[in-house]
Design goal:
60s Ribosomal Protein L30, Chain: A; 9 strands; elongated
Length: 257
Amino acid sequence: MDKPETTEFRNAMEPKPETKNGAFDPFNEDVFSYPFELKRERWSVPWSDLMMTMFIFFVVMYVYQAGNRKLEFGPGPGNSHISQAGTDSIVNANIKSQPSDIYDQTKAAFQDTFVDNTTTVDLVEDRSVRISITGDLLFDNGIADLKPEALWNLDQVAKIIRENGFIVNVIGHTDATPTHSERYPTNWELSTARACNVARYLIEKWEIPGSRFFVSGHAWHQPVLPNNTPRRRSLNRRVEIVLMKNKPYSDKETSLK
């Protein structure tokens, strides 16, 4: 009479994995014959794969978030700092900043933003920062209404102005070509109207306090170059935004005695 098979008997009859010098051979094709002790440790392989997958997932999420981060600006004068998308330029602007500091950082930021030389930044003799935008970029010939495509350029300037408490003087300039339109009888009206429209946009769109602004127009009397070629006349048609540490005059000097 045949005896029933026992567990020990079946284990003894199962083929054993080949070994090299008594050590377990991991390349043995008979993977189903691994000893039970070895099978218990195989959970570490899928667990490590899972951890690697999770690590890659979080890295991808971090890179995506960093690449699509939106610019955040402070709520008003003297707050935070700004940066330009696509660049590493940072402008740290506050009420304690010196004009020379604002100049250096603004110029560095604009070098990447305005690559066509339509906007320049200068530090003038009275330690003020002057941002000059060519008039042809902002206006059509003989018109003071802002071009829709010019608003982006003014937005870049507004980010600088809003983050500090400097006084802002917006100055309009024309070339020497006379204008005789019904709306603008002379270049005085045209240059002043252009400066007013730029100031209004900065005040109304970006909510910069109007008390910080001065507006003036100089017609064609302060050219940067002689008005003897079309190229030079185009450079003379400009709007300057001058950032000053202090008002050009004291409030006490203008008060009635």
